[in-house]
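Input.
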Amino acid sequence: MHSVETFRGLQSEVTTWRRYLHENPELDYRLHNTAKFVADKLASFGINHIEIGIAETGIVALIEGAGGQGPTIGLRADMDALPILEASNKPWSSKTPGKMHGCGHDGHTAMLLGAAKYLANTRNFKGSVALIFQPAEEGALGGQRMVQEGIMDRFGISQVFGMHNAPGMEIGKFGICDGPIMAALDDFDLVVKGRGGHAAKPHDTIDPVVIAAQIIMGLQTLVSRNTNPLEALVISVTKFNAAQAYNIIPDQVELAGTVRTLVPDLRDFAERHILAAAQGIARGFGADIEFKYRRHDPVTFNHTGGTNLAIEAASNLVGPACVDDKITPRMGSEDFAYMLESRPGAFIFLGNGATAGLHHPTYDFNDEALPYGIGYWVSLVETALAR
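Output.
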């Protein structure tokens, strides 16, 4: 098996790719330049089976091993950026104001391209590798669309694996756990309908501002007093829109928020009980509500076999001491969850060092992590598809 030193020779070239992608961020499914860049690189590596236009701008490319017949495993990288004004002040900062790679998808794409170049040259495995370059991870369900468009069956993928950089985790270290590793994501809109009036005469109104404040506090007891504290549930109200003047009590207040959980059944609980609690509080004051609840990413769930394979591959690269196989699950969400619902596999975190956090305007992917990510993908392929 390889050490990370095997892949340091690729670091300079892959850094150039990564910084080009960082300078030229694109959003959601509108990844036309990014997709062309990826497809052109894949073709330059001598990869002949490249399919473009999946979920609009997604790509799947197949590399066949030299070891004969065998299964196909999928490796996924996300490609889209975020609608954030960059403040990193790096020489390779975004050239498009209001768009930036604030989550490291530029690094994820570059690492999978680096692994593709290596694997296309060596082909030291049996079976095939499906390289999945996904659009629209940031809230637009690109992973779900690629699954719905049949990539798992069309390319015969038997297992699928994902990777994400982790600010705060040391360079050269990996983190993973069996079972839930990232939370499900839902969101909701809630309108409190009262009766407005002059702020000097609150007794003539049904004040939706006070009622909305009561609802916000009441929702916190759904977590603290109605769910098992060992089963993570987060309900956060993140929007509050009321009157725009100092002396007006409005007719209605608009609330919105997010629900995160690692337990699928708690999504049903949250939907039912947010409605019941808000309705009960509002009606107690003589008001009413409108409520909409939307489900997005499911729980990202690592399968035992895939988790063990990922641990083995990472350990082969950096040694067991640098692989934490029992990390605490994270309450962020990941639409790679849809791929893990479709096929067994696992999702792993790669150390990004002491950088700014994800989705922060000063964040930048750490190029020192590139050889570790490339090496992990190669180690995973050669471990899973040993000749």
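The CA atoms of residues 179 and 302 lie 5 Å apart.
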